[in-house]
Amino acid sequence: MAIQISDPWVKAFGGMVMGGAGMPTPEPTKPSDMARMAPLDTALYMTIWNTGSQPDRLLQVKSDVAARIELHTVEKQGNDMVMRQVPSIEIPAGREVKLEAGSLHVMLFSLTRDLKTGDRVDLTLQFEKAGAATIQAQVRSTLMP
Fold first, then answer.
1. Which one has a higher pLDDT value, 113 or 28?
2. CA torsion, ordered 44, 128, 88, 8, to nearest 10 deg
3. pLDDT band at 13 (very low <50, low <70, confident <90, very high)
4. Please, are residues 46 and 6 in contact by the beta-carbon 8 Å criterion?
5. How far apart are CA 104 and CA 72, in angstroms?
6. If you ran DSSP here, which 8-state letter would residue 103 be given?
7. pLDDT band at 15, cuts 50/70/90?
8. Are 10 and 40 in contact (CB under 8 A)?
9. Which of 60, 82, 78 is nearest to 69 (CA)?
10. CA nearest 88: which of 73, 76, 77?
């Protein structure tokens, strides 16, 4: 395979949502609390290296840890940075692409379980030419490098 993946990691998320002033709010304890909760979402980061002589594209990521997984980028629109979904991520021949905060990344929406620092997440990356690559990403605190 002409694709190599290094340092895949997912931001830890353990059943808390951000409340006012960025303070964590505990999980809801009654049905009325559920209505104001945001879905539990997080992001996947990694470096993808294409060692081949032809460009490739990351088309899709699958895992049972999230109800929906999308490829995203972040763009400047006026004074704001806006995240938007992209259909694929181009991996040029002989080059690496870093998926990182504030740039290209993978969003994991509506997590099916808590992701605690030190856990591992199994994911399958689907490339246009290289095919499927199964990886295991480490769950890290956002404070870790």
1. 113
2. 10
3. confident
4. yes
5. 6
6. S
7. low
8. no
9. 60
10. 73
* Separation between Cα atoms, residue 110 and residue 75, nearest integer Å: 23
pLDDT of residue 50 exceeding 60, the answer is yes
- DSSP secondary-structure letter at 33? H
DSSP state of 21: G
Per the structure block, which two tokens stand in for 124? Answer: 């399958």
Which residues have C-beta within 8 Å of that of residue 11, sequence separation ≥ 6?
A: 42, 43, 115, 139, 140, 141, 142
3-class secondary-structure state, position 32: helix
**CA–CA distance, 90 with 111 (Å, rounded to integer):** 26
Nearest to 90 by CA among 104, 100, 101: 104
Q: How far apart are CA 89 and CA 99, in angstroms?
A: 10
Q: Which two tokens stand for residue 10?
A: 């997912």
**pLDDT digit string (tens) for 119-128?**
999 999 999 9
Residue 58: alpha-carbon gap to chain centroid: 13
Measured between alpha carbons, how far is 106 from 66 in angstroms, rounded to an integer?
11
Please, what's the b/e burial string for 2-32 (b: 16 or more CB within 10 A of its CB; e: otherwise)? bbebeebbbbbbeeebeeeeeeeeeeeeeee
Average pLDDT over residues 81-95: 96
